[in-house]
Amino acid sequence: MPDFSDRLNRLPPYLFTRITQLKKEAYAKKLDVIDLGMGNPDQPTPAPVVERLCDTVKNHPSTHRYPQAKGIPKFRKTVAGWMDKRFGVSLNPDTEVTALIGSKEGIAHLAMAVLNPGEAVLVGDPAYPAHFNGVILAGGEVHSIPLKPENDFLSAPSGQAFVFELPEQPHGGRGAR
Prior knowledge:
Elements: H1 6-9, H2 15-28, H3 47-59, H4 73-87, H5 103-114, E1 120-125, H6 129-137, E2 141-146, E3 161-163
């Protein structure tokens, strides 16, 4: 096994790798498994989406290139409009919206963009693994906050940043406090 950086060695085992291992063991024992794991789609992509994708790839050669680093301007403008309509949040599509491959990438890169080595980030426990892994990869320190009913799922230590999460998926949101 190769030697990895101290930064990678600080990462805990990936939760979903362990869950996948446990599922395989259960399937091998012929157990009935209800998979509430990673949230992978369990239905096919809708036909109009597939058709539009095929048409775009076949008939629009300009799409055969890498996109702009922040994402296509029309996409960013659409995202900003959706955020305003859905949440009443006004975003500048040129400076406050960027396209991502996925949430893990975005969370890790955000931590690298805003943290200096050793700075603390408050992360709820339990949490989506990328919330603490991104902090670790950025050289920050994770301060775990147990989310319990008796403290109204809140705590008040100080840190450079706070990861606010809702149980269904990692995303931004607003709270009353």
